[in-house]
Amino acid sequence: MSRFSPLALVALAGVLLLAACSRGPAPAADDMTLGDPKAPLKMVEYASASCTHCATFNNEVFPAFKAKYIDTGKVHYTLKEFLTPPNELAAAGFLTARCAGKDRYFTVLDAIFRSQQEIFQTGDMRGVLLRIAQSAGLTEAQFNACITDEAALKALNDRVERAVKQDGVKGTPAFFINGKSIGSGEISLEALEKAVADASK
Taking the model in full, what pTM does it have? Predict the structure, then answer.
């Protein structure tokens, strides 16, 4: 666990004062996205790699939503990274996914969500993340460099600070469609479908 100590820097974002956002979150150049940028509906999800509700959404709801709306060009999806306890896992997970490259980012993040319970049950955060990183083509040396990259940590911390100060995000997962909040916490496919239908009117 001590090898991840630099990641504690990002925990500072969690104590920043919250500010309201009148227009809702918009994709930034450093956000990760899926789907057609020209799609009529824009969905934003704030998620944390260590958030159990985010893992549930990823594992049980998102695949069907993606197939029905994102893959068909109806929705452009943006994931905005956020940190929730244990912040160390959230930060290391996002850094690992980014180091794998844009084309593998969501595949790696999916693997992390699906391995989340294993990490919690075994306490072997480094071992599980290293296995996922290696499956995405990273060497152990590249993985070690990735999770201790202070410039990448600062960039992540800046993204989280922006979420807190500009978008008023208080927790994850939080969902927005075309800038309008559609809820936070666990959400069903049916609730998402209704939100999409309402936004399409």
Answer: 0.86
